[in-house]
Each structure stands twice: as C-alpha cells, then as structure tokens.
Please model this.
Amino acid sequence: VSARADALAAKVAERELDALLVADPFNVRWLSGFTGTNGLALVGPDVRVFLTDFRYIERAADELDASFERRRGERDLLADVAPALPDRRPLRLGFDDAHTSVRTHRKLDELVGDEIELVAAGGVVEELRAVKDAGELHRIRDAARIADEALRETLAAGLAGRTERAVARALENAMRDRDAQPSFPSIVAAGAHGALPHAEPRDVEIPAGTLVVIDFGAQREGYCSDCTRTLATGALDGEAGDVYDLVLRAQRAGLEAVRPGPAGREVDAVAREVIEAAGHGEAFGHGLGHGVGLEVHEAPTLSKKADQHLAAGNVVTVEPGVYLSGRFGVRIEDLVVVTDDGPEILSSMAKELTVVD
Ligand code: ZN
Ligand code: ZN
Model:
C-alpha cells in the first residue's frame, strides 16, 4: 500500500500542490488501508499523515499502512488538518471538489486560514484507483467467482413460479453463505419489468415463456463484482430471441474492443454501432460500461462522452442492453480485466440464451 501513497505524492507534486486532503472513505481505504468511516489522509512530497478520532484509533493501529503518521483528532477532523500540514506558509492544499459540499469547503477554508490556499483537485485518487494491482485483482476475481456460484445455486431451483423478490433474496443469501456481501441490491426483472434498466424486484411471480434480467454482484474484502445475465423461462416468441442475439453480438464486439489505448467513448461506440445498425439505437439508453473496484461504479467509464483511455489493469464492465418498453429487456454484462493480451473475462456464466424452467 505504501506504493500507492508514493504514486499519489508524485501526482500531487505534478499539480504543484504541497499536499492533497483525501476524505472520501473509498479513497482513504485504497490509500491507507483504513476501513473505518471517519478518517482523513494528507499526502504530499513531504507529508503522510492520517487523522482519525478516538473511536477508530485502535482500528487504525491495526490497519494503517506504516508509511503514515497516525494522529488523533476531534470527531470533526477538519479542525486538525492545518496543524498536521508542513510548517511552511503559504501552502497549496488540494481538496476533492467532486466530493466536497459547499458548506464543508467554506468551513475548511475558515479553519485553515489565509496562508493555506485550497485548490480543487478532484479525481486524482480515482485515476490511480482505476489501475488495479495484483492483490486487488485477486479480490475482484474472488467476488466474481462467488457471485456466479451463488447464481448457479439460485437457478438450480428454477425461476418460473418464484417471485422476483424471492429469487433476489435467495441469490443474496447464497453470496452470504460464501462469506461475501451483495455489492449492490440485485435486480431480478421478468418480462416487461426487464425493460427498466434499474428495476427493483417485485413480489410478482415470474411467468413461463419470458425473459428475466438478473443483474448481481458480490463484494469480498471490500472489492466488488458486477454481472448481468438475461435468461429465458421457456420458449420465446420470435423477436425476443432476435433481440437477445443482437445484444450478444454487441456485447462480443464491445469485449473485443477492450484493450489498453482507446478512450471509453471509442469502446462504447463499437458495441453501440451494432445495436444502431439493427435499428435499436434508441433502446440502448445507457453507457456500455463502468469501472469496478472498491466501488461498483468507478473510473474508467465506457460511454458516449467518456474521454479517459483504457489502461492495463483497469477492470470494467461491458453491458449493452436493449429495452423495449412494455415488452421486455435484454442486458448482458461481463466483468473484464484490461490486459496487454486482450480482455480477461471474469464472468463465467454462459452467454448463449439459456432456458431455466
Ligand atoms: Zn450490473
Ligand atoms: Zn454494471
């Protein structure tokens, strides 16, 4: 973990900052190892300070990377920021403008005084977090494996005749049985309900002869997985099968475009063109994918406007969908590691249309 603080300190120096205030809990965890909810880190070329209050001081002693000087502050840690910084003044302190409220910014500005300049520097830690190290990849692979095992176990009891909510609950319990947590509330959406990309499971029985979208993920040692499969509960009418094949073709095209180099929007375009060419462009109303790590949605993004370029070590989803309002939806999502040798697909469930009675 020390290497992370070193990499961040280099970024801070590049931006001509004396230090960066890291407050977002996911960023703090990635940087320092601390898993509590009230911790702040200050990182710069000559500063590695971690602040927490009395409730977490022992946890910090266990978890914190040794390169950090541990300090105990008040519950409101902002008051302890200025005294923890190097002595020289004036001093430029970066803060995460993407995660800081106007109110917190105003308070911090008052607390640090006139000789410390607050400089907007959001996204610096997130950019580093986007490239996973071997330990992180190991945890994400574990999470993906557990999630797939949990789905297989759940599907063994069938789909038709169970309620969406019962299937979602069984799936999440199967993750907990494997010492994992759901990384987000599972989506189980049958028939027309599947046309809502963010459908919540209902107390409604899943009928035979329909499509069911199941979007699910596990979290293991802090790291998430994310996968979607669309399954059939019996023979389908013609168009549902055609749309399924279309989404699968788009998904495979998107996967082939995943490699170091292209911008997120370029990868998105490869899959989107397949769906547009079939006349369903309007029915694919979200981005192709997103990064996954400590958070289930993080950098980099694959969407129409995403400028960030893919790099080896990124973990992203590839999840095109076609949603036909009032009828059905199809989404197929794999979790993928970007490597120099092409995509390493972590999702192991079959992608050919599978019938589960
Ligand atoms: Zn998903
Ligand atoms: Zn996703």
The longest strand covers residues 39-44. The chain has a mean pLDDT of 97. The chain has ten helices and 19 strands. The first helix runs from residue 2 to 14.
